[in-house]
Amino acid sequence: MKQISKAYAEAIFSIALEQKKVTEFAEKFEQLEALLTKHPDYCSYLKTPALPLHERLTAIEEAFGNSMPEEIVSYLKLLCENGHITILPDSIKEFFKLEMAVSNTVTATVTSAIALTDAQKEKLIQKLEAKYHKHLCPIYKTDSSLIGGLRIELEDNVLDGTIVKGLQSLKEVIKT
User: Fold this and answer.
1) How far apart are CA 105 and CA 77, in angstroms?
2) CA–CA separation, 78 vs 72, rounded Å?
3) ∠53-80-95 over CA atoms, to 5°?
């Protein structure tokens, strides 16, 4: 299913890119993603064989025809017609990955023992952007079990400067 999600996402992304509507489509997909989070059974409803296809397509048109670009409505209908509507959440995630790749943006998950101040966040992001030459979209988490320091996950890299990691490393050195 991952490949199918990716193929659909690439198709709608290429349309968005061609029409110079990537930002608009991304905003609409964010709205759609929020809606799906609120109503997780919506895709299952649109896949129900008990409901005739034309009624499912009409439901999509009525729900999104006035609030979404025609291309996205057509995309939803295509997913429904092909029996792939349940991959919509994964397809949206794939769209966002493509958007980030084109804009040279990556997600950085920053986990700290205590919440960082705005100044600390800004300084950290500036340093990471300078090091990796990419725009970062940070996600901040707190985990008191780290005791102190930071753990940063960025693409395939993990930078672990936590006290817990230091203690684990010290323990390994003592063991040997």
Assistant:
1) 30
2) 10
3) 165
Mapping DSSP to helix (H, G, I), strand (E, B) and coil, where does residue 91 land? helix
Distance between CA atoms of residues 139 and 119, nearest Å: 15
Q: Which residues contact 96 (CB under 8 A, 6 or more apart)?
A: 26, 29
Per-residue tokens: 76? 């939803």
DSSP 125-169: HHHHHHHHTSEEEEEEEE-GGG-SSEEEEETTEEEE--HHHHHHH
Tokens 């684990």 identify what position?
168
**Other Cβ atoms within 10 Å of 12 Cβ, number:** 23
Vertex 36 angle, CA 71 and 42, to 5°: 90
Nearest to 159, CA basis, from 176, 171, 146, 173: 146
pTM for the model? 0.71
Task: Give the model's confidence band at 129: pLDDT under 50 very low, under 70 low, under 90 confident, else very high.
Answer: very high
DSSP annotation of 114: S
pLDDT tens string 83-111: 999 999 999 999 999 999 898 888 999 99
Q: Tokens 């966040």 label which residue? A: 121
CA-based R_g, the chain, Å: 21
- Separation CA 140–CA 137 (nearest Å): 10
CA angle 168, 173, 176 (to 5 degrees): 125
